[in-house]
Amino acid sequence: MEQVIDIVLLAFMVVTAIAMIRLRNLFAVVMLSGIFSLLSAAMFVVLDAVDVAFTEAAVGAGISTVLMLSTLALTFREERPATRADWPALLVVTVTGAALIYGTLDMPHFGDPDAPIHQHVAPRYIVDSPHEVGPPNMVTSVLASYRGYDTLGETTVIFTAGIGVMVLLAGVNRRRRADRERGNRP
Amino acid sequence: MITTGCLLVLMTLALALLRAVRGPTVYDRIVAVNAFGTMTVLLLVLLGFLTDRPEFQDIALLYALINFAGTIAVLKFVKYSNLAGPSAAADHRPRSEGDRIS
């Protein structure tokens, strides 16, 4: 039964992606991207990656839909139709995709207990994290303690990106307000 | 019986997805996405019982909350054209009918 659910969810994701490419109405595309991230979060739960599913549901389905909508409020709601087919771009995308698929051929089989990721530091985390760090959830102790500097760097990057976007948007808003005032007194 | 439930929920997901892709108006799509979120919550709960691990149900709860907040945000955007409310931008360019977007 789980395999049936896997196949159906992946088929839904393919249908959603194709519909997102074909639709010109950007509001519908944002709605469909919400559906896509709900589907991928369900997929993560099926794959037992519960914490990733949490993040995907909160960020993908919640915040990014809202962010996309506020972007739509600042820009256009219809996608401009493509004027010509861009063959070199298609070629680059195809070659890159083929290289990535070729790269996965060397990867260990899904769920293989002998895979390097399960042999390197994971056993130490599993054995030592309860009395070294404390929290019952090992993912939390890896993120907050063993890779604490890494997480600090990530938050710094995201914080800086947020400040940059806010500065850019403040400029846009000020210019629009100035234009509007100039337009009101002819 | 849980298997039958899963199959039925998957069928409902397909119908909601169809409506979100086809839906001519904005409101069709919003309702379709909302129904899709609700069905995902149901599917996660059923999946927990199917694999004998019902402790993952708190994710389903989180989905229900996010679904609600997201729908409110989308409806505010459709109604006021921004997420802040009826104040600043809506006064200058009144565009309160959401049908314009469809």
Name of the CATH homologous superfamily of the domain at 1-79 in chain A: NADH-ubiquinone/plastoquinone oxidoreductase chain 6, subunit NuoJ
Instruction: Fill in the CATH topology of the domain at 1-79 in chain A.
Output: Four Helix Bundle (Hemerythrin (Met), subunit A)
Secondary-structure class of chain B? mainly alpha
Give the overall shape of chain B, derived from the CA principal axes: flat
Beta-strand residue fraction of chain A: under 5%
Helix residue percentage of chain B:
over 70%
Helical coverage of chain A, percent range: over 70%
How far apart are the first and last residues' alpha carbons of chain B, in Å?
Answer: 40 Å
SS elements, strand count of chain B: 0
Please report the number of helical segments of chain B.
4
In terms of DSSP E residues, the strand content of chain B is under 5%
Question: What is the C-alpha radius of gyration of chain A, as a whole number of Å?
Answer: 22 Å
Termini separation of chain A: 69 Å
Question: How many helices of chain A in DSSP terms?
Answer: 8
CATH architecture of the domain at 1-79 in chain A: Up-down Bundle
The chain pair forming the largest interface, with residue counts per chain, is: A-B, 38 and 41 residues
Task: Work out the radius of gyration of chain B.
Answer: 17 Å
Structure, explained:
The complex is a heterodimer of chains A (186) and B (102). Chain A is mainly α and 186 residues long. Chain A has eight helices and no strands. Chain A has helices spanning 2-22, 26-46, 50-74, 87-104, 116-119, 122-132, 138-146, 148-184. Chain A is extended. Chain B is mostly helical and 102 residues long. Chain B has a domain at 56-94. The radius of gyration of chain B is 17 Å and the shape is flat. Residues 89-102 of chain B have low confidence and may be disordered. At the A-B interface, helix 1, helix 2 and helix 3 of A face helix 1, helix 2 and helix 3 of B.
